Fibroblast growth factor (acidic) intracellular binding protein a
Amino acid sequence: MAVELDVFVGNTTIMDEEVYQLWLDGHTVNDAVKVRMEGGVLEEFEASADVLLSDTMDQYRTFQMCERLLHSPAKLANQLLFQIPPHRQAILIERCSNDFISRVMGQLNVCSTRTVLFDNFKRVFKVVEELKGPLVENIRQHFLLSDKLARDYAAIVFFANNRFETGKRKLQYLTFQDFAFCAGLLINNWTVGAIDNMVEDMDVDLDKEFLQELKELKILITDKDLLDQHKSLVCTALRGKTKAFNEMEANFKNLSRGLVNIAAKLTNTKDVRDFFIDLVEKFIEPCRSDRWTAADMRLYLTHYTNSAHILDTFKHQVVWDRYMGVIKSCIFKMYHD
């Protein structure tokens, strides 16, 4: 009786990048075969449909066996079962990580993310939560990621740890990279690691002492004389430089109260969670309704921040600069005129 066998013998593990992406995207073997056929692979290699099916199944089995190694990328480089060249290993790791990041985009409310989508994040968080040193560097070294991907993962870890709300409708116009940019600013300026770079959870937890100090900024809105002086200084600097001057002058006190109140309430977990919503509702939306351009926003916030240094009775310049340095850059990134 004749028996037909498909035999593959070799040393270097063959991995097709297109098939790997189809596997990452969750396609079945039959779906992947159909996609490859539509892409003209049969004509390109003068192969039959049976050979294509066999090749696709073989590669899917290989990816499934490699999956556990992708969970611990350092092991992938040292194992002997699969002879995968270093450049190909890098592609496997980057593609797998990019797949996770792309799935998170548009649904960054990672606290409620479930099943497979959340697995990569949980593995990263479990490894880095007890490590000392910079979060991005720890992720990069342990998971062999590029600096860009390591920063993206760090952003997700940071947001999940502090339970920032990012899924509300008001925030849907923002991209993952908008949030990741702001996460980088918060990590570098408002966490414990901004002061001490060798403590546990240094880049994950916000600096509680700094959050308490932010309450001192309320004097800018509770002291009427100081509020009036601040307004006068800012408006003097802005007059004649923007078409939105009248709106800036009329709304100065409300906008200032919005920014300072956000600062003063960050000791509360709920207000930390609503940080981005508050920025949009209390500052970005009012400015957008007055038709401020991005240049108007930059001009206003620059003078608003700098003018506080001229106020004689305002004694919290260091805290102010640490706060407004992040707020300005986040708003610039979030304000799409």
Observations:
- The domain at 208-334 is CATH 1.10.490 (Globin-like).
- The CA atoms of residues 293 and 326 lie 20 Å apart.
